[in-house]
Amino acid sequence: MELPYLEDVSPGTGSLPPRAWYARSDATSLSLNGSWRFRLSPTADAADDSFASDGYDAGAWDTVAVPGHWVMQGHGAPIYTNMVYPFPVDPPRVPTENPTGDHLRTFDLPDDWPATGGGTLRFDGVESCARVWLNGTELGEFKGSRLPHEFAVGHLLKPSGNVLAVRVHQWSSGSYLEDQDQWWLPGIFRDVTLLHRPEGCALDFFTHASYDHRSGTGTLRVDSDVDGRVTVPELGVDVAAGESVTVAVEPWTAETPRLYDGVLATAGERVPLRIGFRTVAVEDGVIKVNGRRILFRGVNRHEFHPETGRALDRDTMRTDVLLMKQHNINAVRTSHYPPHPAFLDLCDELGLWVIDECDLETHGFTEQGWRDNPVDDDRWTPALLDRAARMVERDKNHASVIIWSLGNECGTGRGLTAMARWIRARDTGRLIHYEGDPSCADTDMYSRMYADHAEVERIGHRADTEGPESRRQLPFILCEYGHAMGNGPGGLSEYQELFDAHERNQGGFIWEWIDHGIKHPEFGYAYGGDFGEELHDGNFVCDGLVFPDRLPSPGLDAYKRVIQPVRFAYDEDAGTVRITNLHDFADLSHLSFEWAYHVDDEAASEAGELAVPPGLGPGESVDLKLPDPPPTSRDAETFLHLTAMVGVKTNWTKLDHGVARAQFAVTPRPAVRPATGERPSQGAEFITLGPGTFDPRTGELRTLNGIPLPGAPRLDIWRAPTDNDNGASWQGGQRNGLVWRELGLHRMQHRLDAVELTDDALTVRTRVAPAARDIGLRTVYRWTSDGSQLRLTVSVTPEGEWTVPLPRLGIRLGLPAAYGYAHWFGGGNGEAYPDTAAASGIGRHFMPVDRMQTPYVRPQENGARADVRWAELRAGFTGEGVRVVGEPAFWFTARRWTTEQIDAAAHRTDLTPGDTVWVHLDHGQHGIGSQSCGPGVLPRYELHAAPAEFAFTFSRREATPEEEPPPVAPPPGRSSL
Ligand code: IPT
């Protein structure tokens, strides 16, 4: 049976050979973006193609914006699946129900459109298969959604009334090659442009610009299909295309993105060139650029916008690059397809290493043990080679692109080998990446995703003995790690240590940059299943370092600290700091340094500039003497703060932007004064002890300083499981979130054993345990007072066999809604958990309780602040309130809803503030880890059920009407900018 074009395995017919992409030349062009006529049909052939012929009246059709996806514009709906195909696997056939969008646009040529020459029609991206007509003549059809396709159309153009018709099928044979973990979003989602092609215009050209770090020279050769001259005025270069020239240059690196403007002039066209000189090679088993080892501090970036899907405007692309740069990120893997080419222009200009990945993934074939996998079937090889060529030809002139990636999650096969061979023959100046083949037969590096720390350490020692010997000679990267789904990822610092310790471990790319939550009137942000999909993978699509609106998450703040390019090490005895430049190329001349001593919560009592030699080269260290710390009274704490800020004009951030910081305790935390001596008294209705009144029957605290408590303090071990607590089904190890629930840790019962009054204390003895289990926690609350303060000591003794870590261990209490302003001395200002605390700095923080919430798209445990010495909840910024001092320091969380409500919520909009401020004072929190698609919590961050004792001292905080209200802290994530 002969298959129709959308189902045959060919990449298409009628288009021009792929070539270099450039935004503008002196040739005229016409953008065909804008409002197009649109008609949606349920099947590929429901409507005839007469709409493409001259004179068709589409006046009754709807309209859509191009670039755009029709499913984001009210026609049909998005579908989210991770690796399964949302249609039967029967390659290359696709379902009869195949949403098909007919697009129509009429246009006139502008008045200055030259009368001579040709024209090229360019589509930068159409998902997944398009058939194209101009003025009634069929041009051809194509697949390869995130790749450009051009057609020669000069002979068909008329001055006015041109009719461009495009039929787009959601499903095609190409869909089998595009099984990336993302929303399925059909449509013409990138630009459509008509390019004038003057006589003698440029065709394809390839800029080769290498750098010899020994001589400090660059060698330039621009190969061009058409004769021409290459000029680079700044370098005095004026040579024929194809001719090499060697001159002294400054090299391009991601840290020092030096570009030289040039021109390729053919007889009929002048094409601007942006040239970056750099040489990429593997030497001694290490990836080197310009002779130096590089370390990827990377992210995986999908193209995503919560309202327009993968149709991104230039501002959004720039925002992404700027946010990355501002968070110390130096590399992007364009998971899992070539991005809009303008994004790569930004990477060239602002400086990011790029792994450019081909638009290829066949992950769904794992469901059948990779049987019939297109990448191991010669019939599909032409389509694979077409994709490789379209990526390489389009992007080959970008300095930022240093590695080509064959695709993602395709298993193994001959087709991949064919792609690698073709790429190597075409481009000898870059390396090849592919993760899915452990033999590394086709690649220049060994790459893994989600390998745990122990494995990365083994690999670092080149002791990964399970693979072929040849692989151990290769450099290593983690193309995906640190799964940023919901709260987390945890354990990044420990990976960074392994990257720093082993030359072979050249860093990695966090999965992933952005949550793909789609803006939704009811849910806030929608994820898989919210559009009624039959088959979907839920919120697995929300696993980014930035929220859908690009607000940085605490995970991004933490990552910024973990990868900061300056290390500070304080030697308390010597009174010195060692500063190490962790850049790969740059010295420190762009940074200014400061030291400051902060005494307790007061402003710096001393601060000054730190005279770091600006010429300190990459990898070099310097020891600097610090001024002596100021004298500190017995009840204050002193911290040394060290910061590195941008001190020169840059194109990626403002002056004084913080790049690196560190904090060191100079004095120990002073002991907390004991609150004892007062005798509890039993009245008719209450037991009174200092500022507290208690229920004599239950021993529960009813009022504190006269404030009635909607929730008496009591033991709490439950947290709304995070995505990383719940883990992924295919991950090894115990999935704590599920085990906790199975054990019943979300419905602990509190049995009262005794309420005892003694001379100096009220003691309440309880046992806290889940129904149906013999495990429990003996819990004793001991209350004492000095008359004005009330101290609670909690002693916990586990009983039975606890085989799981505890989610948290602490107390929870409820305050009336008025106490909605938090003020604390401790870690902040953002969220932190034991293994995600890199960005948490001790100081005085102030925030409305509403601001302390981290808005994960799927609600889950969030918002804890680490190392808190004391916290206040005030009625108003300067109002009266409750003060609590912890012994030892504690995890502080406050919110207007309960853990149970978070646990029951599916979307942000399910959470609405109640009339209680729930306060968690935790002695311990279990770590976060990365098990939603990676390793779990490292042993050192597990919270084991073990005997524990901790105390909180409550007192009244008086209003301070004269106090200047402190500036309101920025929302989570904006703090580190
Ligand atoms: C890995 C994929 O490469 C990526 O696209 C994404 O799905 C990620 O996981 C999880 O969010 S594949 C996984 C099965 C290891």
Structure description:
- It comes from Streptomyces rectiviolaceus.
- This is Beta-galactosidase.
- Its EC number is 3.2.1.23.
- The chain has 977 residues and is mainly beta.
- Helices cover 10% and strands 36% of the residues.
- The chain folds into five domains: 186 residues, Galactose-binding domain-like (Jelly Rolls, Sandwich), CATH 2.60.120; 172 residues, Immunoglobulin-like (Sandwich), CATH 2.60.40.10; 152 residues, TIM Barrel; 104 residues, Sandwich (Immunoglobulin-like); 271 residues, Distorted Sandwich (Beta-galactosidase, Chain A, domain 5), CATH 2.70.98.
- The protein contains ten helices and 59 strands.
- Strands 48, 49, 50, 51, 52, 53, 54, 55, 56, 57, 58 and 59 form a twelve-stranded antiparallel sheet that branches.
- β56 and β57 form a beta hairpin.
- The C terminus is likely disordered.
- The structure holds 1-methylethyl 1-thio-beta-D-galactopyranoside.
The hetero compounds bound to this protein are: 1-methylethyl 1-thio-beta-D-galactopyranoside
Q: How many structural domains in the coordinates? A: 5
Our Rg estimate from Cα atoms comes to: 31 Å
* Sheet of most strands: 12 strands, antiparallel
Task: State the low-pLDDT regions, or none.
Answer: 972-977
> CATH topology of the largest domain, which one?
Beta-galactosidase, Chain A, domain 5
Number of helices: 10
CATH first level of the largest domain:
Mainly Beta
Share in helix: under 10%
Principal-axes geometry comes out as: globular
Beta-strand fraction estimate: 35-45%
Give the N-to-C terminal Cα separation.
60 Å
Structural class, by secondary structure, is mainly beta
User: How many β-strand stretches?
Assistant: 59
> So, CATH architecture of the largest domain?
Distorted Sandwich
Overall pLDDT score: 96
Pfam family, one: LacZ_4
Organism: Streptomyces rectiviolaceus
Biased composition (Pro residues): 966-977
GO molecular function: hydrolase activity
